[in-house]
Amino acid sequence: MSNNNKKWFSLNLNSRKKQTSNTCGCGKTTGGCNSHNSKPQMSDEDFFEAAVNASIGEERKKDGFDQVFEVKMDRRTAFKQLTASLLIGAGAVSTSCSLVSGEETKEKAQIDWEEQFKGNYKLMSDNEKKGTVDRLVRSYQIRTGKTINMSAKNAEEDVLFGYAFNISKCQGYMDCVSACVEENNQDRSSQMQYIRIHEMKDGKGFNFNEADDNYYHEVPAEGHFYMGTQCFHCDNPPCVDVCPVQATWREDDGLVVVDYDWCVGCRYCMAACPYDGRRFNWSKPEVPEAEINHNQHYLGNRMRKKGVMEKCTFCVQRSRAGKNPACVEACPTGARVFGNLLDPNSTIRWVLENKKVFRLKEDLGTEPKFWYYMD
Amino acid sequence: MGRLKVFGSLVKDSLDTITHGSKKYHIWMAFLTFVMLVGMYCYSIQLDEGLSVTGMTDRVSWGLYISNFTFLVGVAAAAVMLVMPTYILKDIDFKQAVLIGEGLAVAALIMCLAFVVADMGGPSVLWHMIPGIGVFNFPNSMLTWDVLVLNGYLFLNISIPFYILFKHYQGKESNPKVYIPGAILSVFWAVGIHLVTAFLYQGLQARPFWNNALLGPRFLASAFAAGPALIILVLAIIRTFTEFKIKDQTIKKIAMVVTVAAQINIIMLGSELFKEFYAPTHHSESAYYLFFGLHGKTALLPWIWTAISLNVLATVILTFHKLRNNLKVLYFACFILFVAIWIEKGFGLIVPGFIPGPYGKIAEYTPTGIEIGVTLGIWALGALVFTVLAKTAIKIETGKLRYKKQ
Lengths: 375, 406
What we know:
Chain A has about 375 residues and is α/β, with parallel strands linked by helices. Chain A has 11 helices and 11 strands.
């Protein structure tokens, strides 16, 4: 957190994760100032590290069921063998009566099996990520006959997403809320919403206690102002530490994400979040087929299941594709600003440098990447 | 090979023991089985529909299950109050009580694990939590600490009594050199399980009601009051219904433990109330909600005031030697103390942590019938496990159950 280029306030409390600085003392980001040795002498420790890497390589990092059981066998073939024997042993009798549908049922059973026993997405290699995404797409195709587009795009380098909210501009129209629900395939039956808009009385300051986050009248209401909250994508997120299975983590571009398939549903993260940023699927989420957004990301708006956590991901399927999150795009007043904090020319950096910004509950040391400001 | 044969015979004999008994025993077991079946039916509905059949919501995301879990960790930890004097201080008085205490700890731990599993959104992927096969977020997550200490404590509390009973079953004396180290370890372990469980809540900066340094110590004090209080009640029942001899002196000594713990607990309660209400801050709102209600929302008021009154009454009764030494009065005091702490350390602790929410929203929590059904089912499971363990242990200890001597 000692990066001098950072223009926003940093509390530096509890921060165990030091941000790696890409800049060198000379101010250049790329090589050429000659103060860096491009190929330094290998120290003993480095040598040991390299030797271990060469001998056991990836296995050191592996975890999760298949990552343990896969020794030097290709995981797909391993699972095919496992599944095939299992099917012959037990399941095949009832499922393979018809040749055509039998093929599909068999494939579906195999996909379900592989999905049930796959590892944690956070620890997967890029190939494994692609594998699970392919399976999910195929599974959806078999089930509904429709094709979805699912991405497994990783965080890009030199990107750290941040968000700013203009309190003077927001009029409480809640277009952001409905855009978010549609974009992220949230459960319609329980009316799950990531964003809450708090209607506050003028002259009372930021008094959340007396604010109303569930209003049904014409806006902007006389004598009120509006303030939106959602997941703040903390740099030091308490929800990540408490997860017993590392099903939620902070990506390199700052997004705090959940692997819906790895989550066990203990809701400890929900208790740990000071910002009401997390939502739980208390029953099976339902989205009408016609309303499903088919442009998905594994960590983002793909279909969830019952009993798992989910949350705002700054629309990872959009932001990693270079677009603004749905809430930013939907806002009719321009109260929402999103961008790359590491890009000195971005709007978000302009806001942080030129406006009086603040964040909520800074005393907790969570370092949210969500700022509020006024005109 | 010989040992295996003895073990096989022990299993056979204990099965024989637990399936035979008086009419009352059979009615008791049938009743427990019935409640368990009802609980399982309720749980099957929960599995099918999801946790939406409970009263929990995004606003109050932990309820009756986690409350009971928290309380029962305390009951399990309290077994140590009997282990320490018996095995380490060699206070012979407690010897008969300690096997019962450890049996109670095992039953309480099984209930704890059952409550945690019942609370999970995805029980089918719980293997993600098994170290080695899944991803175990140790040491960052206090929940992983809890998994370790609870299972370790369960192992200790199964193995020590098993060793002793296994020896007695063969008519041999148990070797203190074998079980004393385990007993000493379990003393520290018991404190550990309760502190770790307190830290689970204490470590959350998001919830000011829990995030206070007294939570851990207060957990210990209330546990060492409620646990032994339950043991006194159980011993009273065992004394009446079986030939197992338990001296008055033993019960009175345990009552002493209960008294001291209850007194310390009251002092800590006073300290907590002083801090919350002398100079109330934004962070005292949960306490205000719990004790006085906020904005007309008063669901917990009757519960917490019942708990406080019972708690004070029990402590006063226990403090006077004359009253405490009267066994009838003692049982009454123990019973109300147990109920009081169940309320206070259960939903009196868990639910207000979520109310008001992070942005001041007050949404109340009421458990549903299905949730209560599952909870009762798990309590019945615990009672069944304890009955089975206690019946076998008593039969061995009274010398009725011996290897090749049926």
